[in-house]
């Protein structure tokens, strides 16, 4: 599937980044953790996990949604009311944690983009939002069920639907920042935020908007989510060494580590960005999406569907596979998935395996589910902008099956190198696949 039409599309660039993750409460600290090869995984503190086979997660620590902004913003112009915090204490109670995380990352990305200084000359109807979530307000659903069980109908919060509805993150961001263009939410499991980025870029490319805020968020470190994934035997049970638990490509990997967080981009039409003198991190040049049509929770043999999404993204970008310097892999640390994706990468990039770097940043962050695609894309964009490929940590013994493919999975230590083009993968339950190509400008 080729989502961009290169002959007619307008160019799309990344001009703002925001992140709230197990590695840090902003994009700078999150990238610092990735570059340093630091793990954000630890024992679960959000609930008592005693009795569960998996008792570790990538939690966001020290996060406060009502914290004042470093500098007030004026999304409605100099004469409008200043935005001094993402949420007031009163408003914070109305929303779920995924919206707290996602809106905070979105406001950071907006501030980082420098758009606020130009709002008087920008048309809000040409500025849109596409932010996704995989499971939505699961913590709030679990808590409200307990409230109902003990107090009945009269104890149900009138804000409950606002807390859990997947599109309320996009809605709240558009309200906060006065973005009146396309407004939507993607939900495609662990490919969610990759699709959100790709579809937002497509909206700019075809002329529906000049600016899009895009990415995703997730906060499902809850008894039901952890318990359900544990029952599927999908999670690592390395509870005695949580920082070592997420280990893509290692022969002793035993499952993924659930995590929470949000990663958000400001995407902008290239000429629009240049005209206002914006800093450009990279160009989002290609987007490919596909379906395995094979199994609801396992990749197709040889990750055939994943191969098609990568090839479609390269066609969309009008680039040969040999132009790619780095692949930010989906690489969840599951016994089967890592090998299948690696086989697909080796097949697509057969001609340049010797110079290609591959890494799995979930080794440090854990798996952000709906936010995972944007985290992988974040690693790709920063690799281009900083000239540094983040590592795959906990790589003690490379799986012989993966070793035989001849891929360089960037074990344990970041690699300094020029990155002119990078591809980011994200795949999800239901057999959904997404690949994005970013290039230097």
Short characterization:
By secondary structure, the chain is α/β, with parallel strands linked by helices. The chain is 31% helix and 19% strand.
Number of helix segments? 14
Low-confidence stretches: none
Order of helices and strands: EHEEEEHHEHHHEHEHEHEHEHEHHEHEEE
CATH architecture of the largest domain: 3-Layer(aba) Sandwich
User: Beta fraction of the residues?
Assistant: 15-25%
How do the strands of the widest beta sheet line up side by side?
A: 7-6-8-9-1-10-16-15-11-12
CATH superfamily of the largest domain: Thiolase/Chalcone synthase
Number of strands: 16
The general outline is: globular
Q: Between the first and last Cα atoms, what is the distance in angstroms? A: 25 Å
Could you say how many structural domains there are in total?
2
Give a topology summary.
Blueprint: E1 12-20, H1 27-36, E2 42-43, E3 56-57, E4 68-73, E5 83-85, H2 89-92, H3 97-113, E6 127-133, H4 138-151, H5 160-164, H6 168-177, E7 183-184, H7 192-205, E8 211-218, H8 223-231, E9 261-269, H9 270-275, E10 282-291, H10 304-317, E11 326-328, H11 337-348, E12 357-359, H12 362-365, H13 372-386, E13 388-389, H14 400-403, E14 415-416, E15 421-428, E16 432-439
Parallel strand pairs: 6-7, 6-8, 11-12, 11-15
Antiparallel strand pairs: 1-9, 1-10, 2-3, 4-5, 8-9, 10-16, 13-14, 15-16
Helix pairs in contact: 3-6, 7-13, 10-11
